[in-house]
Write a structure and sequence with these properties.
Layout: E1 17-25, H1 30-43, E2 47-52, E3 56-58, E4 69-78, H2 82-95, E5 111-117, E6 122-124, E7 127-129, H3 138-147, E8 152-153, E9 157-158, H4 159-168
Antiparallel strand pairs: 1-4, 1-5, 2-4, 3-4, 6-7, 8-9
Helix pairs in contact: 3-4
Length: about 170
């Protein structure tokens, strides 16, 4: 997948950016939930889902006593600001029954994370881009590498190299 040309504009003349969203679920019908999340994202004004990685089953991280996750990533073109895009992701989570209670990294019906946005680095309360632990998480890097092998995580390097480093560490 090719990056958007600098200054590309969408139908309404707004700047278009390429964002990458991590998707995960480990409760209920995980695949159906992720597919519905992708549909809901694509229906949102200012968001166009342009590619989705394959789904992969992964072990939980952090809180280990829970079901396996199903993870993927989606590439989206968006005219939304980073904050508005994050707000939309949280709204879609709520529509799909996500409740933010219980242990951090615990079981969830769906999890949508804003991983990357046009090479931007954002560090604001409640919004960090790239996602703060992206470079440490193979379950997020693998689908990104599938979508765009040349993708770079600002401040950390190419997705492929980060993934290789994680796979070769004990």
């Amino acid at each position: 997948m090719q990056p958007l040309p600098a200054g590309a504009r969408g139908v309404y003349g707004c700047l278009v950016g390429r964002a990458y969203v991590g998707l995960g679920a480990n409760l209920g019908d995980r695949a159906a939930t992720l597919l519905r999340a992708i549909e809901l994202l694509d229906e949102q004004p200012g968001i166009d889902v342009v590619a989705v990685s394959s789904f992969r089953e992964t072990d939980p991280v952090g809180f280990l006593d829970q079901p396996l996750f199903l993870n993927a990533a989606a590439a989206v073109e968006t005219t939304l600001s980073p904050r508005a895009l994050l707000g939309t992701l949280l709204e879609v989570e709520q529509q799909l029954g996500r409740v933010r209670e219980g242990p951090r990294y615990g079981p969830r019906t769906v999890d949508l994370d804003l991983l990357l946005l046009d090479g931007l680095t954002v560090d604001e309360p409640g919004l960090e881009i790239p996602h703060p632990r992206l470079h440490e998480r193979a379950f997020a890097l693998e689908p990104l590498a599938e979508l765009d092998p040349a993708l770079v995580v600002p401040g950390h390097g190419p997705v492929q190299q980060l993934l290789l480093a994680l796979q070769s560490s004990p």
